UniProtKB/TrEMBL annotation:
Pathway: Lipid metabolism; sphingolipid metabolism; Sphingolipid metabolism
Top EC class for this record: oxidoreductase
GO molecular function, one term: 3-dehydrosphinganine reductase activity
Gene3D superfamilies, A to Z: NAD(P)-binding Rossmann-like Domain
Organism, scientific name: Cryptococcus wingfieldii CBS 7118
Domain of life: Eukaryota
Entry protein name: 3-dehydrosphinganine reductase
Catalytic activity of the protein: sphinganine + NADP(+) = 3-oxosphinganine + NADPH + H(+)
Length: 321
C-alpha cells in the first residue's frame, strides 16, 4: 500500500496515449485529459471517426496542447509499434507518461454459435491489442529510463464469468493476468506503475452493437446492472488513479467480486477491502447460484431453438455423464 505515495496522478502538460480513443470510455477519458491540459494522442482503426474525434478534442484544448489522432490496427504487432513511434514525433521521441489501453469489444453469444474466426478475433481485439502496445511502451520507458503509468482496461467479466461471455471473458482474463504480472515485474524499474480498470457495462456505440447479439440468459443475469455513461466510467478510473489503486472499479458489486478473485494483488483500502471480502463470502456464492439457476431455467427453450434451427443430429438425448 505504501508505494502509492510516489508519482501522483497529474496529467496536465504530460503526453497521454489513449487506444480506442474515438468512442466510449476512451473518448470520454481523452476529453477529460484535454480539459486538464494534457497532450493527448488517440489511436483507433477508423480514420474518419478518428479525425472527427481529434477535431473535437482540439476545440476543447489550448493551442499549446499537442492533440493528434493515429489510425492503426492495434491487433497487429507492427502496427502497434508504428502507431506509438508516430505518436512520439512531436514529443522528441520520448515515451508518453500516461498510457490507457481502452481498445476492445464484446460480441456475446453461446460458445457453439461462434465461428473459429470470431474466437480468434475476440482474443486479438481485446488481449493482443493491449499486449502489443504494452510491450512497445514498456520497452521504450525502460530503455529511456522514463517514469510512466500504464493502465489496462479489463472488465467485470475479467473477474468472473457466465453464459454468453465464453470468448470475451477469456480475453479479458488474459488482460488481467498480463496486468497482474507486469504490476509485479515493473517493480524492477523505478517510476513505472501499472493499473487495471475493471468496469461493468458502459453505455457506448460498442454497447449498442453488443446487445444485438447478447443472449436472453445473459440479459437476465445482468438485468440489475445499469450501464454507466462513459463520462462516469472515466471519472471512476481517474479517481482510482489519484488514490493510487491498482485494481480500479466503478461500483460496489465489482469491489465485492474483486476481493473474492483478486489473485493476491495489493488492496485498495485495508479496512474497506476486509469488509468487502467478508461480504463476498456470502454474497458471491448466492449470486453464483442465481446465475446458474437462470441458465438451467432456460435449458428447454434453448434446446427448442436449436432443434428448430436443425442444430442437433438425430433425436437422442445423449448419455448421462
Amino acid at each position: 500500500m505504501f508505494w502509492r505515495t510516489k508519482n501522483p496522478y497529474a496529467p496536465a502538460g504530460k503526453h497521454c496515449y489513449v487506444t480506442g480513443g474515438t468512442q466510449g470510455l476512451g473518448k470520454a477519458l481523452a476529453i477529460s485529459l484535454v480539459k486538464q491540459g494534457a497532450h493527448v494522442t488517440i489511436v483507433a482503426r477508423d480514420a474518419d471517426r478518428g479525425e472527427a474525434a481529434a477535431k473535437e478534442l482540439q476545440a476543447l484544448g489550448k493551442s499549446t496542447q499537442i492533440i493528434q489522432f493515429i489510425s492503426a490496427d492495434l491487433s497487429s504487432a507492427d502496427e502497434s509499434d508504428r502507431a506509438l513511434r508516430d505518436a512520439l514525433v512531436p514529443h522528441q521521441g520520448l515515451a508518453p507518461e500516461y498510457t490507457f489501453l481502452c481498445a476492445g469489444f464484446a460480441q456475446p453469444k453461446y460458445f457453439v454459435e461462434y465461428t473459429k474466426e470470431e474466437i480468434q478475433s475476440t482474443m486479438s481485439g481485446n488481449y493482443l491489442t493491449s499486449a502489443y502496445t504494452a510491450h512497445s511502451l514498456l520497452s521504450l520507458l525502460i530503455t529511456q529510463h522514463r517514469h510512466g503509468r500504464l493502465t489496462f482496461v479489463s472488465s467485470f467479466a475479467g473477474l468472473t464469468s457466465y453464459a454468453g461471455y465464453s470468448t470475451y471473458s477469456p480475453s479479458k482474463f488474459a488482460v488481467r493476468g498480463l496486468a497482474d504480472a507486469l504490476r509485479s515485474e515493473m517493480q524492477l524499474h523505478d517510476g513505472i506503475r501499472v493499473h487495471l480498470f475493471v468496469p461493468c457495462g458502459i453505455l457506448s456505440e460498442g454497447y449498442e452493437r453488443e446487445i444485438k447479439t447478447t443472449p436472453g440468459i445473459t440479459r437476465k443475469i445482468e438485468e440489475a446492472d445499469t450501464p454507466l455513461v462513459p463520462e462516469k466510467c472515466a471519472a471512476a478510473l481517474e479517481l482510482g488513479l489519484k488514490k493510487g489503486h491498482y485494481q480500479i472499479t466503478d461500483n460496489v458489486l465489482t469491489d465485492i467480486v474483486r476481493l473474492r478473485t483478486n489473485g493476491g494483488v495489493p488492496s485498495n483500502n485495508f479496512i474497506f477491502d476486509l469488509f468487502f471480502l467478508f461480504l463476498s463470502t456470502f454474497a458471491v456464492p448466492i449470486w453464483r447460484m442465481m446465475c446458474d439457476s437462470t441458465v438451467r431455467a432456460a435449458r428447454k427453450t434453448i434446446h427448442q431453438e436449436y432443434a428448430q434451427r436443425g442444430f442437433f443430429q438425430g433425436s437422442g438425448t445423449g448419455s448421462a455423464v
